[in-house]
Design brief:
Helices cover 25% and strands 26% of the residues. By secondary structure, the protein is of the alpha+beta class.
Length: 637
Amino acid sequence: MVRRAIWLCLFSVSAAAGSGVCQTASPKAEVKPAAKQTTAAAAAASPVATLKATAQLVLVDVVVRNSSHAAVHGLTAADFSLTEGGVPQTIKHFEEHTALTQADATKFPSAKKLPPGIFTNYTPAPANGAVNLILLDTLNTPLKDQAYVRQQLLAYLKATPPGTRIAIFGLTTRLIVLQGFTSDPDALRRVMEKGVGKGSPLLDDQVGGGGIQNSEADNLEDMADSGAPIPADLVANLREFDAVQQSFQSQLRAKYTLDAMNQIARYLSNIPGRKNLIWFSGSFPVNILPDTTGTLPDPFAAMASSEDEFRDTVNLLARSQVAVYPIDARGLMTSPMFDVTTTRNYTGSRGPARMAQDQQKFFSDTAEEQGTMRAMADATGGHAFVNNNGLTAAVATAIEEGSNFYTLTYTPTNSQRDGKLRKINVQVSRPGLTLTYRKGYYADPPNGKSVADAALAAASAPTLGDSLHFAMTRGVPVPSEVILEVGVVSMTPQGQTEDKVAPGNQVSAKTKGPYRRYAVNYLIDPGGLVFIRDPEGTVHGDFDLLIFVFTAEGELVNSHVSPVRIAMKLDDLRKAVAQGLIYHQEVSAPAKGEYFLRIGVHELHADHYGAVEVATSAVKNARPVTHNSAAQPAVAR
């Protein structure tokens, strides 16, 4: 992304330099720091060939299979026809992708070696083919099924095709990177051999016995049948209480699950090409419909909908070229009423009604969960695997299918961004072939939220569902919608501390000194930023520089947020962003113990993020630099 000479500039923070900015031509940008923050802006001035435009281009990956379910190769653009909303579209670009061979794997680009103290969120990717991410969803999966998933994955990894690029993530109430992308099956096996997971606190049946148990309301009904004076409304209210509690748990699981999908999409967004997300889960609690069993006084008491977030998430996944392959970890589903562990009382006068209710609930819940799986797969161009005990074969099929595909792109004839669903239909001229692809997209406006104060408001207490929380929580996968490299170095000489934090830092009430101060120097790839030209011809760019300081347990102890507002003519902007945008910030962390700097950029127009995470121990031996605490915030002229 940048030349090594720029890296030397990242460490030029000194009293002589004042603000710590490279002595190069500066963009005509107005930098509006938060109160008393030290912020500077500059960029190397040299010609640049292109600048991003806002022309709409829709990308569709198409998997083509024959009657034997084998991948079909050798098709050309002339073999395909594509319509949007029934209107024929012109295919502008066409490309065939095939699974990596052993020879291809040796050509895989390795991560570039960075100097000490330099960190990036750039991830190398193969020039052809796809990468695969396996998500072990322990949030929605009982322990019994978790163990079976691990067993089946180990069986697959023993015969992994050479060059298969796989990462493994885990989902509890947050997303965790268990193994980054690698084609080393031994590294992947070590992750899977670390034993079983833990039971989900949001599942009624954490272990996975499978049977249905008598509820307190059932017990009261049985007592009433025996002549005990049990009020009927008490039983009904208890049932509603249980249903609302289960609904709340399902809503939390749906929220955590969709948040994780959002984070994955942002993490994978800057890896070029197709990404296959293989999602092992024991349930998919996205939509909860009104009660139709007649057992609740209020049929809408347990109703919740995640439709809006589901739509936003699958849209983000599709834009990031992520195809989702949900695999039901429960395997072949059977009715739990006849399970040996069932203790629900089906005898007596109420037995037949209870069995009918349980059977109806089982079929409706199963249909809804599998419908969600299929909807997620259809919306992203993947395939759902349900009622199948062969999980090993499902993984192999998903990876093989997602590694052999065609990419088609087109510019829609309907250029309106009205937020409506645009249905896509792809056909091929050869008979007897089956196509799998995403069936549509939402024509949302190109500009997302543009609220500069939202990041600052959420910095001290990020909330669940906030995109800031997805990107800037400690330990979660780093988003790569904006590519950046940062240089981090201590500004406090070894053995010394400071009583006060750096200017503009917002420490939590519990945080106590003494502190060490760190210089954070950004080098931002402008390719991830959105620039908008106003009627007068001035081009605007709006983003925030973010640094959050966390404990190892994820407790926020300090934050530093600095808005950056760029306004200049197009020709000047092209020169200014030619080799990246360079900014400087200073942040403090308690001197005792290890802390983690979550360093990010939030592009406001498209709501895009880039971030890296740096442990203070990783830069403790870096050469300290002096600083001028009286230096004024730099504003480019």
